[in-house]
Amino acid sequence: MDALLSVRNLRKSFVLSGDVPGGKAQTLKAVDGISFELQPGETLGLVGESGCGKSTTGKCLLRLIEPDSGEVLFHGKDILPLPPRAMRPLRRDMQMIFQDPYASLNPRMRVVDIVGEPLIIHGLAKGRELQQEVVRLLDTVGLKPEHLYRYPHEFSGGQRQRIGIARALAVRPDLVVADEPVSALDLSVQAQVINLLRDVQQQFELTYLFIAHDLSVVEHISDRVAVMYLGRIVELATAVELYRQPRHPYGEALLDAVPVPDPTVRRERNPIKGEIPSPIHPPSGCHFHPRCPYAREICSHESPALLDKGAGHLAACHFSEEVGRFRTRP
Amino acid sequence: MPPLLDVRNLMTYFFTDAGLVKAVRGIEFTIEEGETLALVGESGCGKSMTALSLLRLVPPPGRIVEGEILFRGEDLRRLPPTEMRRVRGNRISMIFQEPMTALNPVLRIGEQIAEVLRLHRAFSQRQAMDTAAELLGQVGISDPGRRLREYPHQLSGGMRQRVVIAMALACDPQLLIADEPTTALDVTIQAQILELLRQLKEQRNMATLLITHDLGVVAETADKVAIMNAGLIMEYTDVKTLFSQPAHPYTAGLLACIPRLGSKRDRLAVIEDSTGQGRPEKGESFLDRCAEPFAPYKGKLPPLREVSAGHFVRCWSL
Q1: Which of the two ends of chain B, N or C, has the fewest CB atoms closer than 10 A to its terminal CB?
Q2: What is the pTM of this model?
Q3: Which of A50, A149, A186, A200 should be substituted to probe chain B, the one whose Cβ sees the most B Cβ atoms within 10 Å?
């Protein structure tokens, strides 16, 4: 099957001005040459800690941030060189759901206008038909017609996220980039929104790039998971396989750091040492080597390539066959 | 011997212009020496206000309207302000969720730790700085001598939380209140901080009131758990019983909706009607929208009853 989206060697750097006026500018490589594919109907989870470049990646795919280089093939066609006029109709097919349901809805617009706006912009509906379509969309996401004329502040966080989902669905996209869509929500509401995202995925045949820092949520919703660290994908595998046998020390460390919600399995913890390094001055060689319990001499000067370690399980590690020794989860 | 902390019928209300908000509506729990009690609940359930009430730090227009806070048998509510100041940061100390706002951005961190020691222990500046360096070492900060002279913005989030912990431990408190101590941190850093807190607690036999919404963190660190909803404790028991035999429907619902690593399910369980349709009314709680009908008692608040030894549940069904 042809991939819906192919990302090839995507790069994005930000230039930071110096600390003091006239100071030396520094470059932050937020996305440092990443490649992956999304098959139609699949959910790829993109997971990593603060500053790993996962949100920048999501925004680059939609050209909300312009990447420096690389290719983003959507339906087989590179969208990066397209002029804005050619880009606009494509935007209908690629939508985004944002993390903060408080900041991503215009507080001065009513629900009917928020959800209806994309339909107007793309010329898909107007007048009575528009309103009926908005009511249908609200129903899909579990809201009611009486919510039409309310403002965002009248809703709870979970309901606002439902409005954001309805807005993304309005134009019947193929691809939805969901950037931490549930991290601002309480546990019970989070479960509802995750279920909703799965329901509409089937109903509308959506392909998801699901960006999150919470590995439990990502594992739950994703078919495959890509783990990012300091701008690079270090591991990519099916969700089941990543959990069963991580092949990158950072993948293992991330899994192991997630607390186990079962008091009968209290374990001797051995968390990885050290802080996440600054992406402005990432470590040489393999970016993870200063924190890595498996690291040897080669790791400090030779950056390992992302290679297939068997059955499509990709990992960027010189010693991936050893990974597993430091696991403490049952 | 009385328990280290015995909270009885604590109520904290906010007298806002828009009306009365009952943040804490009558809470009871005890913490023994060296024990960790986790206070768990979703946003707005009153868990943080409970913590601030214990230290009498409730911001206006809120105030404690009722109840007793017995610390080693002495009611903290009756202490004059000067006495209360001797308790805070000394016998009971607190760490906060956001380590950046808990530290003063314009003071070097050594100064901030030393202040606690000068104030409560009457240390000289020299003594206080030496002890501060020692404390930084204990919380796992390398090169403490240099770090003492740095400002908070020069440290990462994890480092800042270590500094806040060092400050909180400076006077060897008997009770540490930790309000979402790892929520703002990345998961690998969270694991480090939780491990640090566990070690420190063991070394010092310090009791902890851990406030969190993360049931994974609860399972890994708590001895006892109180589940809060709408300003009330719904269930209160030891951690193993809570996870193996949750008795309150709200607790069962919370446990069922956690996505668990390694056990893929098609759908997550949800707490019935927990969004409600429309914005929740003020003071609405799980009790008002509980899916299980107990018609004879509808609309009446069930008491927190002991259903088996040490297991308290607020539900008519039991």
Answers
A1: N
A2: 0.88
A3: A186
